[in-house]
Design the sequence.
């Protein structure tokens, strides 16, 4: 028996913005890239970003995607932000109480500090966001 469920973007509450981020990695070459989009409570796309990060592992690009997305939200002076990532590993790492010994500790700590400067910021795990996924994949050449 098969089950089909429709995945769709849900608008944030009134006076909130939503940042959807994603990272991608080309298997053979190891090239990595991140992308994201910020939308408002009316469902309007405010701004998007994509970045080629060279060669590396997927958890690295997911973390950099979060960092760049949060910096962009800060630049736009967004204080109420819902952040969604399809990386359960990233979300779990961000919820860890001690990142000091993790190889990405400094980067993740920077993300935590960016979020703490906002009035309301929340990070949660979702299944793949197609727009952020497309932005991430469009800036690297896959094998």
Sequence:
């Amino acid at each position: 028996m098969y089950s089909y469920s429709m995945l769709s973007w849900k608008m944030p509450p009134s006076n909130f913005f939503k940042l959807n981020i994603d990272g991608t990695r080309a298997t053979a070459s190891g090239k990595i890239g991140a992308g994201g989009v910020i939308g408002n409570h009316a469902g309007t796309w405010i701004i998007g970003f994509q970045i080629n990060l060279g060669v590396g592992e997927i958890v690295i690009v997911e973390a950099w995607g979060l960092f760049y997305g949060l910096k962009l939200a800060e630049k736009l002076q967004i204080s109420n932000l819902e952040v969604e990532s399809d990386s359960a590993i990233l979300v779990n790492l961000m919820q860890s109480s001690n990142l000091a010994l993790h190889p990405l500790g400094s980067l993740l700590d920077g993300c935590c500090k960016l979020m703490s400067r906002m009035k309301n910021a929340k990070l949660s795990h979702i299944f793949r966001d197609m727009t952020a996924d497309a932005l991430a994949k469009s800036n690297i050449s896959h094998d």
Summary: Confidence is low (pLDDT under 50) at residues 1-6. The CA atoms of residues 38 and 73 lie 8 Å apart. The chain is about 30% helix and 30% strand.
